[in-house]
Amino acid sequence: MDPTLSPLARGLRAGLDSDTAFSSIVPPIYLGTNFAFETLHSTPQYDYTRSGNPTRDLLGEGIATLEGGAEGIITSSGLSALMLCFTALVPASGRIIAPHDCYGGTWRLLQYLAETGHFTVDHVDQTDPQALTEALQHPTDLVLIETPSNPLLRPTDLATTVEKVHAAGALALADNTFCSPLRQRPIKFGTDIVVHSTTKFINGHSDAVGGALVAADAQVGEKLKLWANVLGITASAFDSWLVLRGLRTLDARVRIHDANAAEIVELLVTHPATTTVHYPGLANHPGHEIAARQQTSFGSMISFEVVGGLAGVEAFCHGLRIFDIAESLGGVESLVAHPATMTHASMPHEVQLAAGITPALLRLSVGIEPIADLLADIRDGLERVLKVGR
Q: pLDDT, tens digit, for every residue of 147-194?
């Protein structure tokens, strides 16, 4: 590809015009499980799809280009990408620092691995600089950063946090799933590795589960690639092709996602059925200035609390016409989730409350449907909440 093109153009055009057999604009899917050796003693570029696959590699190159990294490794899910990073880069006696309000699936993975002796883990409020400084007084191998957090959208200052992490001799791993590489590029702020659930915004169509790691350093990337083969957690060629297709429309999609979200936030903050709205674009949101500094936009994830507690939540959800009640996020379709019983259900109740996850909290993944329809659906849901409270 023309190296004079911008990283955005090169990333979004990943794989286009790469077919040398028939000059297909869109690259073919290499579904084959194995590849022939030219001679007995030759070393082919590809030999077995678990180890390497042309379709999967095109996706890895595209995401790495968008993130500004040296190497992209594509896995079968976002959690498998985390598992790969923990296995390859954290010794058995090591220590991980993770957010106190991290994604429920990440929390569960860390707990299970810690309980079975893989490493120790401490959960810290990383938006509190003093708490992180104190936690880093003890030997640490890796610090996992989620910014903005899931589901309360709390931004973490990447530059300041990474500086502290490196001063302590640890690696910084940033989960960039909520932003995608088009809204935030953690490597720009010194992060060593970026992780994505490509299932979300990068794919954008809710039809392929996948994960990605992007390493800032090529040597770290090679180590991760080696361990991906060892663990057998690389993504299939077909899923990689689907995500690669989604990557090409990422820029167009996020523009609509974000514009829709901004209008929905305006409705939520002025409606009497809501008690709190969590969105980095609000001037009174904790970390608003951080998000404005390190993100190119404020995203399309919103969380809010309604009056009436769980009864208010049920009233809002039951009767929605466009927003589906579902986990996951980042697809073209709009979704609503109840974190306490869905995405973060694996967390004990007291851990949820400490992270700010209450029974009255709802999370929206705003899609790209016409904004008038989305606003009408939200407005009707909020009116149902008020009826319950009366």
A: 999 999 999 999 999 999 999 999 999 999 999 999 999 999 999 999
Please list the active-site residues: 50, 103, 175, 200
Q: What are the residues whose beta carbons fall under 8 Å from the beta carbon of 274, sequence distance 6 or more?
A: 268, 304, 305, 306, 307, 382
* CA–CA distances in Å: residue 102 to residues 110, 347, 356, 359, 365: 10, 10, 11, 17, 17
In this structure, are strands 211-215 and 71-75 parallel, antiparallel, or unpaired? antiparallel
Contact criterion met (CB below 8 Å) for 309 and 341: no
211-215 and 193-197 strand pairing: antiparallel
The superfamily (CATH) of domain 250-389 is Aspartate Aminotransferase, domain 1 (3.90.1150.10)
**CATH topology for 7-248?**
Aspartate Aminotransferase; domain 2 (3.40.640)
Is-above-0.70 flag for pTM? yes
Among 142, 99, 148, 127, which Cα is nearest to 294's?
148
